[in-house]
Design brief:
globular; 12 strands; alpha+beta
């Protein structure tokens, strides 16, 4: 009974949103994906909400035994977390900004200003300099501060400033840039650490988005210091963390010079985006060639034919939704230059399959877009990131 009621509620909501979009200026071919993005946004705000703080839960349903495995080694694993950590919460900021950017609907700016951003400030740490966002809200005391967490937020603030012209958001991005590059030193010839409290490795995930951030700040301010910093960061990553065999990026280099050769979609995605931004500014074909090589290598490395819950076999990207969305940022930036839609088309097909066949009774998705592996608890980030994804794939 509860299952049927939940589905009925979800379907009724989608029909309502479809009718809303039908009366707007959104082209018909884009409507379905935007409806999905909008419905996910409202479902998350409803189901994951923690009214006590105006924040969101880490999982839905709430998992009292949830273990957070993405923190720095040795960091306290908070048991029975009341709210999510910063990283999954940040996915909501990215998603709503994407919806606002592509629809121009003031309702999304209102959600940003009245719900998402006030919650985000509960993670803002002014007790340690430079100021930045820490990994868990300050009402729980100090927690670790990650350079990559602040990369993603700074990029979002750049985009929000570009959309609104509100200098507060630009100032925020610049302030976070200052924090991020406080994590750069001369060890290993440069590079930014991953975690401020555990400076044992320099990771692609903290450096590649920093290069993207520098390019965005350069484009917004025309301050050439950002441009030179973007080039320096990009070149450091190419030298230290690029696999020469396929142009896909390794995860990190440790201070002893050893390399963790694990590969994740988001690392290559940010280097593709950084390369495209540098190419667009300079006209240097090398940046474009490197972005194309990485896109090709990533497609070959991260996709495989997999069985689906419907008994078919389809080509799918790896089971890392948010990582894939960050790859998508690079792929869509590259598509705008070279018009090769293969990589984005494949991811768009994966996401639409997941939505059609693998949503649970609450309308949420798990990590596995094929639907084979089931999860009783759905992670906030795995669903928040899909708001951005469905918004971005609407034209593919």
């Amino acid at each position: 009974m509860n299952y049927k009621l939940s589905l009925l509620t979800l379907l009724s909501f989608i029909i309502f949103v479809l009718n809303s979009f039908a009366s707007s200026s959104v082209p018909k071919e884009e409507t379905a994906d935007l409806v999905i993005a909008d419905s996910l946004l409202h479902l998350i705000l409803d189901k994951y909400q923690v009214e006590k703080y105006g924040l969101l839960m880490e999982t839905y349903p709430h998992n009292p035994d949830n273990y957070v495995g993405y923190l720095a080694e040795g960091a306290e694993q908070k048991k029975n977390q009341e709210v999510s950590f910063l990283w999954p919460y940040s996915g909501m900021l990215s998603g709503v900004i994407a919806l606002y950017k592509h629809t121009g609907e003031d309702k999304y700016l209102k959600i940003l200003e009245e719900r998402i951003l006030p919650g985000l400030e509960l993670y803002w740490d002014t007790t340690r300099e430079p100021w930045c966002y820490q990994s868990y809200p300050l009402f729980n005391g100090e927690s670790d501060r990650f350079y990559d967490d602040n990369d993603w937020l700074a990029i979002d603030f750049c985009d929000l400033y570009e959309l609104t012209g509100n200098v507060y958001y630009l100032d925020k991005a610049i302030q976070l840039h200052r924090y991020i590059y406080s994590g750069w030193d001369d060890k290993l010839g440069g590079g930014i650490y991953w975690c401020e409290q555990m400076q044992t490795s320099k990771n692609t995930c903290s450096n590649a988005p920093a290069a993207v951030l520098c390019m965005k700040l350069f484009n917004l301010t025309q301050d050439t210091a950002y441009l030179e910093q973007a080039k320096e960061t990009y070149n450091w990553i190419r030298k230290n963390l690029c696999d020469p065999d396929d142009s896909v990026y390794w995860d990190n280099i440790r201070l002893d010079g050893s390399v963790d050769k694990a590969k994740y979609t988001y690392n290559s995605g940010q280097m593709i985006q950084a390369g495209v931004l540098l190419y667009e500014e300079s006209g240097n074909e090398q940046y474009l060639t490197e972005a194309q090589q990485t896109a090709k290598g990533a497609f070959q490395h991260f996709t495989a034919v997999q069985k689906t819950s419907e008994g078919n076999e389809e080509l799918f990207y790896s089971n890392d939704p948010w990582f894939n969305v960050i790859l998508l940022r690079g792929l869509t930036a590259l598509y705008k230059v070279d018009k090769n839609s293969l990589y984005v088309d494949t991811m768009a097909g994966n996401a639409r399959y997941a939505w059609q066949y693998t949503c649970d009774e609450n309308g949420f998705l798990g990590k596995d877009w094929t639907g084979i592996k089931k999860q009783p608890y759905k992670w906030l980030l795995d669903n928040a990131c899909m708001i951005e994804l469905f918004t971005e794939i609407r034209e593919f």
